Amino acid sequence: MNRETSNVLLGFLVGAVAGGVAALMFAPSSGKETRQKIVDGLGRTRDKACSEYEHALEYAKTQKEALKEGFVEGKEAYKRVAGKGEQSV
Fold first, then answer.
1. Is 35 exposed, middle or buried (0-12, 13-18, 19+ CB in 10 A)?
2. pLDDT exceeds cutoff 70 at 1
3. How many CA atoms lie within 13 A of 89 on its CB side?
4. Residue range 33-62: average pLDDT?
């Protein structure tokens, strides 16, 4: 996972926790209502975290494929250049 993705995930988690604490502190609801809000909020947070994870996984797969292609192309280019050098000797 690259640094940018890690920072986004960390920021998301910190924001979720801070939002949850603020909601609890300022909630004028009963205990039952507050607990339900917490459950709902955790569900949304879990869904968002899963979505971000899937996005990061897809990004990693894309980058892996690009790296493989670049490696193969570089290897072929090297062979072409090296082959030309051997022919001129």
1. exposed
2. no
3. 5
4. 88
The answer to whether the CB of 5 falls within 8 A of the CB of 51 is: no
**Domain limits at 83?**
3-88
Judge whether residue 6 has pLDDT over 90.
no
Alpha helices, DSSP H, located in 1-89:
3-26, 31-88
Per the listing, tokens 């980058």 go with 63
Q: How many residues does the structure list for the chain?
A: 89
pLDDT tens across 48-85, in order?
Answer: 888 888 998 999 999 999 999 999 999 999 988 888 76
**Long-range contacts made by residues 49-58, C-beta under 8 angstroms, separation at least 24?**
49/9, 49/12, 49/13, 52/8, 52/9, 52/12, 56/1, 56/5, 56/9
Q: Say how many domains are in the chain.
A: 1
